[in-house]
Every structure is written in structure tokens, then in C-alpha cells.
TrEMBL record:
Position of the signal peptide: 1-22
InterPro entries registered for this protein in UniProt: DUF2125 (IPR018666)
Protein name per its UniProtKB record: DUF2125 domain-containing protein
Organism: Rhodovulum marinum
Keywords: Signal
């Protein structure tokens, strides 16, 4: 009995020492990271740093946090930021953002609100802290800009997991519901006033290849850039308008895609009318596109549903032999 008690006391002492050393390491590591950022020209400040949760968890709280990246001109501030991990599994981390934050760009300041904003990350052991899997949830999310626009979203989820056997490749799923875009944007797109105020949903399932791993260097140095997109499914619905797409794209060093997507558009005439009214598509080109799409829709036997293949090449989006718009830019800034 005395031996068991001695072993228990020894185990408790060893665990306490481990927890204290690890907590001290967390404090020192975060402080050092801030110092390095300041040496690189960042604004990197906080008013408080605390590690609690003994004996089973590490709960790290940064208060009065301010970060500004001179390379992008982005600045983020938050009253508090929490990082939590089980003491026996420190590479599985839960991060929690506060209900109010501020993001500033060279052009505007955006107040961010969220009833819940949380991420769970599984990190590979090692100093780079590479993300092996991640799950993010946002609820009652809102944006309010100093330029006068506002936007809200009821809920969004982003899930990512490294693909086994494919380096720097992640399977990604994104879903967002009940989005209210800025009123100015809706007015610009929908001059006829036929769209509802709420965007029903966007859902995306894809495999994304990157030119570098997502680890701490993504914040410190440069964001990994997309090199490959294997789009399994995209589904977006706004009122009576619905868009679905799938296909594979390669992305060059300037963010320009090459490849093809198969697209299904329900009530496509209204979509084209919105594009025409917004001024993004010149009237003469819109007329030619509409004539071609009328023919394609007629061949399918469903005049309100359009199935087409869009090709991306030479920086343009092509419908058959006709360039209809610039190709999207997939650069992550």
C-alpha cells in the first residue's frame, strides 16, 4: 500500500512538472513568435497571455490581441483569443474567436460579429505545426463595413483533411446557409428586384492541391497557392436560381485555371439577365450568348435548365469557341 501511494505521489509530481514545463513553453513560444513578427515589421501586440487548465488541459488566452501584416496591409484585432488542447494530446487544438473582432484593410475597416466561431485542428507533430485536418464552424456571422455595407450568414462549416499519399493536398467541404449579401451588391446584380434578400445556400466538395503545406509558415511567410482543383460538386441556390458544377482544373502560378467544368443552370435566363443588368457582360455579347444558350437548352428538352461545358484557357472562360468572360483568379492573398 505504501509503495502504491509512493508511486501515485511520484506520478503526480512528474505530471505536474510536465504540465508546468509545457505551459511555460507555450507562453515562451507565443511571446517569441510575436517578437519575431515585430522584428519583421509587423504590428504584433497583446495585453495579456495566460495558460491555465491544470491538470488535464492547456487553455491559452491572449487578450488585447492586434496583428498587422505589412505585406498584405491587413490588420486584425480581437479582445481575446483562446487556444485549448488536452494535456495528453497537445497537437489536437481547439481555437475560439471572440464574438466581436475587427479586420482592417487599406480601403476599409470591417467589424466582425459571430455568436459562435470555432475551429478544431489536428496538427502534425513538429515545429512547423502542419495542419492534417481542420473543422471550422461559424454561427450568426455578420460583417459591417466602415464603407456602409453589411452582410450576414446564419451558419457555415468548413472541413478539410489531408489526402493520404498526395502531398500538400486536402479534401475540402464547405457549406453556408441563409446568407444576406450587401444590399448594394444585390441592387447592382438584381436591378429588376427579382431575387430574395437571402441567398439560400452554397455547398462545395472538392480536392485541392497546394504548392506548400498549410502550417505556421502560411501566416509568417506566404499563403500556399492552389495548383489543382478537383471539383466533385458545387451547388448554389438563390431563390429560383440554382447552379451546379463539377470538373477538374489546373491552376498556374498567377492563379489562372486551365481545364473544364460541367455546369447545370436552372432558370439560366434570369442569371444571364442579372449579368447583363450588372454591366459585367456587354449587351451585344449577352445577345449572342443568349442565342447560343437557347439552342443548347432546346436540345436538352428542358428550356429552363441548361447543361453546358465551360472551358478555361488563356486567361478566359470559353463557351465552345466563344470567350464569354475572364477566367477566375484563384490567388490566395
Amino acid at each position: 500500500m505504501r509503495i502504491l501511494a509512493t508511486l501515485a505521489v511520484l506520478a503526480a509530481a512528474l505530471w505536474s512538472s510536465y504540465w508546468a514545463l509545457a505551459a511555460r513553453g507555450l507562453e515562451t513560444g507565443l511571446s517569441r513568435w510575436m517578437e519575431i513578427r515585430r522584428a519583421e515589421g509587423w504590428a504584433a501586440d497583446y495585453t495579456g497571455l495566460d495558460v491555465a487548465g491544470f491538470p488535464t488541459r492547456f487553455v491559452t488566452t491572449l487578450t488585447g490581441l492586434e496583428l498587422a501584416d505589412p505585406g498584405t496591409g491587413l490588420a486584425w484585432s480581437a479582445p481575446a483569443f483562446h487556444i485549448e488542447a488536452a494535456a495528453y494530446r497537445p497537437h489536437h487544438v481547439t481555437v475560439t474567436w471572440p464574438q466581436t473582432q475587427t479586420l482592417a484593410t487599406p480601403a476599409e475597416t470591417i467589424a466582425i460579429g459571430a455568436q459562435r466561431m470555432e475551429g478544431r485542428l489536428a496538427l502534425r507533430p513538429g515545429p512547423a505545426l502542419e495542419v492534417a485536418a481542420a473543422d471550422y464552424v461559424m454561427e450568426a456571422f455578420s460583417l459591417a463595413s466602415s464603407l456602409g455595407w453589411e452582410a450576414t450568414m446564419a451558419r457555415a462549416e468548413l472541413n478539410s483533411a489531408a489526402v493520404e499519399g498526395r502531398e500538400t493536398t486536402h479534401a475540402v467541404a464547405f457549406a453556408a446557409e441563409q446568407m444576406r449579401p450587401p444590399a448594394r451588391l444585390v441592387a447592382l446584380l438584381d436591378r429588376a428586384g427579382v431575387l430574395p434578400a437571402l441567398f439560400d445556400h452554397v455547398r462545395i466538395d472538392a480536392i485541392l492541391g497546394f504548392d506548400a503545406p498549410w502550417d505556421r509558415h502560411a501566416i509568417e511567410d506566404r499563403r500556399p497557392q492552389v495548383t489543382r482543383i478537383e471539383l466533385t460538386d458545387l451547388n448554389a441556390k438563390w431563390g429560383d436560381l440554382e447552379l451546379q458544377a463539377a470538373g477538374d482544373l489546373d491552376v498556374d502560378g498567377e492563379g489562372r485555371p486551365t481545364g473544364a467544368l460541367t455546369v447545370r443552370a436552372t432558370n439560366w435566363r434570369e442569371m444571364l439577365g442579372i449579368a447583363r443588368a450588372s454591366g459585367r457582360v456587354p449587351p451585344a455579347l449577352a445577345d449572342r450568348i443568349e442565342d447560343a444558350l437557347e439552342l443548347l437548352a432546346g436540345l436538352s428538352g428542358r428550356p429552363e435548365t441548361l447543361d453546358v461545358a465551360l472551358r478555361f484557357a488563356a486567361g478566359q472562360t470559353w463557351l465552345g469557341p466563344v470567350p464569354i468572360a475572364p477566367a477566375p483568379d484563384f490567388t490566395i492573398r
